[in-house]
Amino acid sequence: MRSASTRTRIRWSVLAACLGAIGSLAGGLTSVARADDASDGATATAEAPSDSTVDADAAAEHFDYPLALEGPDPAPITPPTRAEIDDALLRGLAFLIDTQNPDGSWGSARKTKALNIYAPVPGSHHAFRMGVTSLAIVGICETLANLGDDELPAEQRQAAETAVDRAQDWLLKNASHLRRAETDALYNVWGHSYSLHAACRLYARAAGNEELQKQLVEMAKAQAEKLQRYEFLNGGWSYYDFDGRTQRPSSSPFSFTTATVLVALKDVQQLGVDFPQELIDKATASLLRQRYPDFSFAYGEYLRMMPRYDINRPAGSLGRSQACNLALRLWGDEHETDAVLKNWLDRLYARNGWLSIGRKYPVPHESHFGVAGYFYYYGHFYAAMCIDQLPAAERPHFQQHLAHILLPLQEKDGSWWDYPLYNYHQTWGTAMAMSSLVRCLPAKTADASDGAGL
Fold it and tell me: How many Å apart are CA 107 and CA 102, to the nearest integer?
């Protein structure tokens, strides 16, 4: 999400980078990406500067994109204990239960500030509320499925189950009403996408209740149809259409928004909800157009020919590459190997400061490398799903580092948040952090986290 003025600033400021970008392209993307790694390592004083690789020497000989296997190793840590993760999950769960709205949803247009992103009313807030409510459902359901009775007090479990029941009722009642706010504001894409994940968790929870499961499948099908309606003309999705403002969105799709939708569509396939393959192909083609040789991803197609522009460089892509790599892997891209996922996970951990320094900034994209605060828990949310793609024996290192990053960031009230957006940010931050931590539980290394879908 960006304010109109910020987006204009980005678009005009990229003109100053054009000559440098053209020169970079002429010199070859491979050599430029190596130089970028060197410069990042030289300035990342808060992060581990080691330039070792993840099996790069051997793998690179047989891989089309050797730069995707190069990167830093994170510094050694003392792994968090299972008890520490459990305690954080319980505190996050209590926060979500306590902040649920009377109608069963989460979030509101309150807690505004002097500077807000472009968000036409009321449709933008319908989308924000749908998105964060769906994420809260996901976070609570996954926590309930992965904490036993000895870890979750019976009273709190019952309160959480009641909260999910109320949220489920709200979702089934309101999901069908979600539309774009204006022809240029499509925040509804987030609501459609995360409601698909919520439908999957609720479907598993409703085992034995065929009528409820049928309602959830029908809701999911309707949300997938909306995503079909709002896919951009040249493939993929975004939440802005400032240029065309057409019935079929026609401006620039964004890499991470496209990845968000693709991951959700793959998840909901387990409910028998399909999506036209030709539209999947157009979306994955858009992602591939935005992928650089080191597997950084351009912010959006409108910036893809500027690989050295700050937000497109590896440090600027830390919050996007996890989702984009995952989306392409789930939809069959053979280059999204375990080695690539592991390298980008280690890069996220070792250079986390570039992403974290934008956390809680009130203005999007005003941090180093154009990072916006709202990429923080988003990036770790999809990083946790990337961990689930790895063989069970190889997960502990990545689970431990992810938990080590997230646990100290929990607020005194039990929440996590990264970017102030009305009264939505604590819900999405908390839900995403909880979902991530569920996938870090030491006892869950033998298989994908129960009830956690992808």
Answer: 11
Q: Strand ranges (DSSP E) for 60-191?
A: none
SS3 382: helix
Q: What confidence score (pLDDT) does residue 60 get?
A: 58
Cβ distance 66 to 55 under 8 Å? Answer: no
pTM > 0.85: yes
CA-based angle 259:332:130, to the nearest 5? Answer: 30
> Would you say residue 24 has pLDDT above 80?
no
φ, ψ for residue 182 (rounded to 5)?
A: -145, 170
Decide: 93 and 160 in contact? Cβ < 8 Å.
Answer: yes
pLDDT digits (tens, 9 = 90+) for 245-268: 999 999 999 999 999 999 999 999
Tokens 């951990």 -> residue:
349
Element spanning 384, H or E: helix 376-388
CA distances from 120 to 108, 123, 126, 128, 181 (A): 14, 6, 10, 12, 6
291 CB-near residues (< 8 Å, 6+ apart):
297, 324, 328
CB atoms within 10 A of CB 275: 20
The domains found in the chain, sorted by start residue, are 4-444 (1.50.10.20)
Of all residues in the chain, the percent with pLDDT exceeding 70 is: 84
The span from the CA of 165 to the CA of 104, in Å, is: 8
